[in-house]
Structure formats: structure tokens, C-alpha cells
Amino acid sequence: MMPLRAPWGSIIVISAFVVALIYLSWPLPVEKQVVVTSSYPIERNIRYSYQLKNVSGEFLKEAEFWTYAPVKQTSSQQTLEIHSTAAYKLDSDEQGNQRLLYTVNNIPPYGTRTITINVKLAMSDNPNNLPSSDIRAFLTSEQYVEINSPVIKELSQKLASEKNKDTVESSYTWITQNLVDEGYVQNDRGALYAITNKKGDCTEYMYLLTALNRSNGIPSRGVSGFVVREDAVLQPHDYHNWALVLVDGLWQLVDPHKEVFMANSADYIAMRLLGGGNSNSSQKLFGGGKGLEGRDELSEQTKVYSHAAEKKLAKRKEVWQIKKHSGRQGSKEKR
Question: Same structural domain for residues 51 and 177?
Fold first, then answer.
């Protein structure tokens, strides 16, 4: 599985911690989204938290932090309500990815702030039809999905069948039988690495399946999220990657790492859809920046810092830190 990668280099320590799941009733911001739930019959409640800490000896007047909320809608998931213990702005993209944008004010030296997020979801084990959209982006080569590689093209041709579902199942079966699970690996390495070395973690399994499908003309994309079978507090060891594949007009869940083929969709909570114009890296689920206007320009080292201390940052980068409370926030961990 994947602990969410911990980039280093900022004034705030960001950490996730476990709290008991309780009845979701908060006086602070609630994002309610109008949805039809008859096709999503399974209710699921999740909770996750961050602890923000000012590790400097200076007063932190203002800092920005963001994190993903569950995807607004997939073929098996709808986000019904988002409850947060702190005020936020909701930022979403065309794919349905959602980020909660926070401004944190007035943290004293070595002080902390805790943000807890509760989400009510409607889930389905059977995929639902989604509105038509441009799928061309899910048929092309991109970072970690190297469909133009001769070795990937050769294997995809061998696995091709007359029916798309049979082709997808052949690719899925080849991966489950030929890749060795090497446990947690910190960095994304992609489909070409997986097929060349015959090993990887859930991320490489996802990328290779996506590449083989696209090479055969079958739209496919990666997903980052959590696997839970009931109401839960999200924890790093539940974090996972899998693929969504468009077969017969429906986006179907395929997870070669856990050996799940077009089943158990209600157990998979999508936090981020990869590719399709978005970053294809599976790593980044939270971060921060100088201001909300610069939130899309964050580096992998995710800076969260005080405006007042900006000039000192260049001279004393060692002062600023960001890490998970357990020492593993921000990385991916192999289940």
C-alpha cells in the first residue's frame, strides 16, 4: 500500500491522524451536492484529518493548505456532503476531481491546527452510465503510460481479442500472473518499468493495465483512492491505485493488484482521477502554497509557508518542514 508521500521543505508540519468515527454533524462548512442516489444505493461515511503545525519560533499569520475530497461522481460513486471543521473553498475540474482550499490564520510559534473532514457518499457495486464526454485523452500516451513503447505494443497485440471485455481480461490476467508484488516503492515508475522488470506495486500494476488497454484502443485511466468496505476513518494502509476501463459504454473497475475484475466497486473510494489533462502522478493528495492563486503551480516539495516569512525562506530553507505525523504522510505504501 502507499503512505501518502512526505515532501520536505516547509514551515508547517502536516500530518494525518486517526480519530474515532462518529455521527457526522458539524456546525462548520458543509458542501451539499445535488445528486440522484437511486442508482447508488450504498451509503458510506468516511473521515480523514490533518494536523498542521508551525514548527518555527515565529508567529505564522497566514498559510494555505489544500487536500482532495472524494471525486464528485464516477460510475460507482457520488459525493453527497462534505463536512469540515474549518472553512474552505471548493475547487473542482472537468473530470470531477475536488480540492478543499484552506487559509489557516494566526498559528503561534510551535502551535497546531487540526482540520477534520467528513464525507457522505453514495456507492454502487454496479457501474452506472455517465454523461458523454471526450474520451480521446484516455487513449493516448502520457507520463507513466508509454503506449508507444515497442514492448508494450507487442504484448498488447498478443493479448487482443475480438471483444473489448475479453481483451481487458487478458491484460488483467497477464499482469496478475507475470508481475511480482515488490512491496511499497516510494516513486512512481510506470508501465514500461513494470513490463520490463516484471515487478512493481499497485501503482505499476495500474499503469501497465492502463497502457495495455490504451494500446488496444480501449479507453482507460488510473485512480488514486482508498479501499474500505464500511464506514471508516481513512488510513494510509488503505490507500491504493486501480484502473477504470470503458467497456460497452460503462467505466468498469479493474484492479490487478488486488485481483478484482469488474466487481466490488462500492469498496473503492476515488479521491483523484488521473490523466485526461490532469497530472498522471499517483502521489499528490495534499499540499499548499503561497496563495490560492498559485495553487496549481506547486512543486513536488509542496511549500506551505508564512507570507511574512517569505524573504527569510530563501536564506533558511532548512527551517521549513512538512511531514506526516507518523513520518509517512504524502507517500504511497504498498498494501
Answer: no
